Amino acid sequence: MRTIDWVDGAVELIDQTALPGELRILRVTSVADLVAAIRSLAVRGAPALGVAGAFGVVLAAREFADDPAGLAAAVRDVEVARPTAVNLARGVRRAAARLEDGFDGVLAEACAVRDEEIAASAAMAALGADLMVDLCGGPPRVLTHCNTGGLAAVVGGTALGVVVELQRRGSLAGVIASETRPLLQGARLTAWELEQAGIEFRVAVDSAGPFLLARGEADAVILGADRICANGDVINKVGTYAHALGARRAGVPFVVVAPETTVDLDTPDGAAVEIEDRGAAEVTAYWAAVNPAFDVTPHDLVTAIVTDRRVIRLDRGEKP
Ligand code: MRU
Hints:
Layout: E1 4-7, E2 10-14, E3 25-28, H1 31-39, H2 46-63, H3 68-79, H4 86-96, H5 102-136, E4 141-144, H6 159-168, E5 174-178, H7 185-196, E6 202-204, H8 209-214, E7 220-223, E8 227-229, E9 234-237, H9 240-250, E10 254-257, E11 263-264, E12 294-297, E13 304-306, E14 311-313
Helix pairs in contact: 1-2, 1-3, 2-3, 2-4, 2-5, 3-4, 4-5, 5-6
Bound molecules: 5-S-methyl-1-O-phosphono-5-thio-D-ribulose.
5-S-methyl-1-O-phosphono-5-thio-D-ribulose (MRU) is lined by residues 41, 44-47, 85, 146, 148, 152-153, 157-158, 185, 223-226, 236-237, 293.
């Protein structure tokens, strides 16, 4: 089942706010509803956001066919719906570049974005599984953070796609999924996907991750990215940096799996990235809160980045 697709004239997506309680499909026909779905995290995860962005331009091309100013504003609304994952703006810009070719041209481009993300997931699964066994000297016990499965892409996923591939090969020795406060992408979505795949796992509170690594309960950390900077800094769900520090301290590999569409060579380092602030309400209704949705992991803490085309060994001085 695809997380997001173009079906009979509308964007259909799995409403990730309803999981794991309910597998609900949202049928989106307007730009405003798609922007709302992106902002509410009904659709989320960097590769899925890229596809959502491209299909958003398809919706805009239909809705504002006779209104060039409205069309430009609608395309911009989709592009800036969330700031951190570079895939969203990329997907939008790629589809928007075909606006001169009319609705059919934009739709063809958006479908190409979707198909390329599907192919990238398969390529990352194979490359990443090889690397994990290599780095860990055998079937690894992994610790993962946030949600990086098919729900975050179209099918397959990034880091969780590697985990599923390891299981398929009989080369997986255990999984710990961090809860991922405050919206529980790990406890709700990763846990649901692992259960669907028949993979045994345990959920840990985020703050336990570094301690579990120190206690030798995982052989590697594997997770995704929302943006990878030219110097190798990795922007991903808040809590990633703490897991990188824990991995370094425990002496285990810290592996980032993301498609090339997440590599942003125009951004020199993590300091240049806008970190989405999702506001206090998600954390607590009772007192003031600070709620950054992503963090920056310095490149010197990353062992390797796996994309659909390359393994970049940052531990050997290679750069994206
Ligand atoms: O706020 P979210 O749920 O969109 O954050 C998603 C993440 O941080 C993922 O780890 C990242 O997008 C990689 S997904 C393959």
